[in-house]
Design brief:
Elements: E1 28-33, E2 36-39, E3 44-51, E4 59-70, E5 79-85, E6 89-91, E7 100-105, E8 112-119, E9 127-137, E10 142-155, H1 157-182, H2 187-207, E11 208-210, E12 217-222, H3 230-239, E13 243-244, H4 250-261, E14 268-274, E15 307-313, E16 319-324, E17 335-342, H5 344-352
Parallel strand pairs: 2-10, 14-17
Antiparallel strand pairs: 1-3, 3-8, 4-5, 4-9, 5-6, 7-8, 9-10, 11-12, 12-17, 13-17, 14-15, 15-16
Helix pairs in contact: 1-2
This protein binds 2-acetamido-2-deoxy-beta-D-glucopyranose (3 copies).
Length: 353
């Protein structure tokens, strides 16, 4: 049995978002969404150049819009990455692929746009971006306007661990398959499998306090939440091969309470369930099932519009409270989240009997 671990490492995950809008030319806007990348957690980065003719700009007409990028923002060394010419003639290094989507169009009555979206942006996507629109001014003379934006990147320490866990998960799955395929009680495979399982558990332990197995699942309580919110917690649990804990029964709640919550120093622990879509209809983000089990305190705070997420609160003997989904980081250090992951060792034992 795995006992509750003490803190080994204090891993802080934070998102730094800086925006720098120098010399923004009205009429041409460069926009990054988001303005700060948290590597391994940010799903996409979108850069846009938006040009609106006739709005307080030197240009009355744009014939091309170009996007440049410089990895350094202090000593900008711009590289031309994408151009839109005429109506929707896209040119440039950044071609569409599984991880990149480039689109754009020049429209002489509506805003023209040049847009590129990267999946899983990394440090190399940070730096300065510059949009440049070429066209003619009201006297018919060629002219240019430009606009710059800075995108920052921050390492999420969690990334390496999560990737490592993913990798180990795949290895354990592969070993399970091989075991199934041969149906033989191959000692070498057994040992390898046990070793990989141990690595998997060790990797998870560096970031999470694990529970023993319960009904095919293991519960992982973050050792620090840092700047986590509901969205990031859902993503992080997913990357571990699990999901934000879906507590569906008194037994499951009791188990989590006894194995993790009671010994935890946190004020609040975030679990799955949000009523963001329809007030008071709580839905799990992973299974999409309705939440059917609650542990409301005898007094239940009035449901306010912004409180759309569920947590257990120590001050209320670990009963449920409603929390704001976005600003959980405001409780710095006092808030954690709970992942539920399929228990591989359970699976293995299950296969053998
Ligand atoms: C191994 O076999 C069992 C029963 O036949 C099956 O349920 C399980 O999904 C298999 N596991 C893998 C990894 O293929
Ligand atoms: C154990 O898991 C099964 C399948 O997910 C579920 O139907 C059952 O209610 C769970 N048992 C307990 C005690 O939570
Ligand atoms: C969840 O609850 C709502 C409201 O009670 C209901 O309309 C919906 O069908 C339920 N969804 C599921 C998946 O059971």
């Amino acid at each position: 049995m795995t006992s509750v671990m003490t803190y080994q490492k204090y891993v802080r995950i934070s998102l730094v978002a800086l925006v720098w809008c120098p010399l923004l030319e009205a009429g041409l806007i460069s926009r990054a969404t988001p303005t700060g990348i948290e590597i391994g957690v940010t799903e996409t980065l979108m850069m846009e150049c938006l040009f609106t003719p006739g709005t307080d700009t030197k240009l009355t007409y744009a014939s091309s819009i170009k996007l440049f990028h410089s990895e350094s923002s202090a000593y900008a060394k711009y590289i031309d990455i994408l151009t839109v010419l005429n109506v929707n003639n896209i040119l440039g290094k950044a071609k569409d692929s599984a991880d990149v989507k480039a689109e754009g169009s020049i429209d002489h009555t509506n805003p023209s746009v040049l847009r590129i979206t990267w999946k899983g942006p990394t440090a190399k996507h940070s730096g300065s971006y510059k949009c440049v629109a070429h066209g003619v001014d009201e006297n018919g003379n060629p002219d240019t306007v430009q606009s710059e934006t800075v995108v920052t990147a921050k390492d999420a320490d969690i990334e390496k661990v999560v990737d490592h866990v993913n990798h180990l998960n795949q290895q354990v799955d592969q070993l399970l398959k091989e075991l199934n395929a041969t149906e033989a009680k191959n000692n070498q495979l057994e040992n390898e499998k046990k070793q990989q399982q141990q690595h998997l558990i060790d990797a998870q332990d560096s970031l999470f306090t694990p529970s023993p197995a319960f009904n095919g699942s293991r519960y992982l309580l973050t050792k620090t939440a840092g700047a986590m919110n509901y969205f990031n917690s859902v993503l992080t649990c997913g990357r571990l091969g699990g999901y934000l804990a879906e507590i569906d029964s008194e037994e499951e709640y009791k188990f989590v309470l006894d194995s993790l919550l009671k010994s935890s120093a946190y004020e609040s622990v975030l679990i799955s369930g949000t009523d963001e879509a329809v007030d008071k209809v709580w839905v799990h983000s992973f299974s999409k099932n309705n939440v059917t089990f609650f542990k409301w305190a005898t007094y239940r705070p009035d449901s306010r519009e912004l409180l759309n997420c569920l947590a257990y609160r120590k001050q209320l003997q670990w009963h449920n409270v409603e929390m704001e989904c976005k600003t959980l980081c405001a409780f710095d250090g006092t808030l954690a989240f709970l992942c539920e992951v399929p228990d591989k060792s359970y699976e293995i034992i299950g296969n053998q009997h």
